[in-house]
Amino acid sequence: MSEIDDYIAAAPEAARERLLAVRETLRRCVPGGTEAFRYGMPAVMIDARHGLHYANWTKHLALYPIYRGDEAFEAVVGPYRAKTDSVHFPHAQPLPLDVIETIARALDARRTPGS
Fold first, then answer.
1. How far is residue 64's CA from residue 2's CA, in Å, rounded to a whole number?
2. What does the domain layout of the chain look like in residue ranges?
3. What is the DSSP track for the chain?
4. Strand-strand pairing, 87-90 and 60-64
5. Exposed e or buried b for every residue in 20-49, given b needs 16+ CB within 10 A?
6. What Gene3D superfamilies does its record include (predicted)?
7. Rg of the chain on CA atoms, in Å
């Protein structure tokens, strides 16, 4: 098993399902992305500079870093923004996979040409 598999397996059952859904969404929306385990959390990397990390916390699942985007991007992502370039998805609410797709596709668009 990989460190990512271990991380997900160690999460409470309800969070495990959410983490697996995020992982699958990132795999689908960031083709050619490389999974990594950085800073104690799973990540998908698209090149040496750009990555998206996800983590389970007691009350929410978070993605980091989420850079500011254009008005359309912020209209989708803004309601989930936290104070430190992250987004939080409370466990008490359905996981908005469409928002995660929007974030992942924006990350993929930052791909360095040729990577």
1. 21
2. 3-109
3. --HHHHHHHHS-HHHHHHHHHHHHHHHHHSTT-EEEEETTEEEEESSSS-EEEEEE-SSEEEEE------HHHHHHHGGGB-SSS-EEEETTS---HHHHHHHHHHHHHTPPTT-
4. antiparallel
5. eebbebbeebbeebebbeeeebbbbbbeee
6. 3.90.1150.200
7. 13
Q: What is this structure's pTM?
A: 0.90
Q: What is the pLDDT of residues 16-64, one digit of tens each?
A: 999 999 999 999 999 889 999 999 999 999 877 778 999 999 999 999 9
Q: What is the third-level CATH fold of 3-109?
A: Aspartate Aminotransferase, domain 1 (3.90.1150)
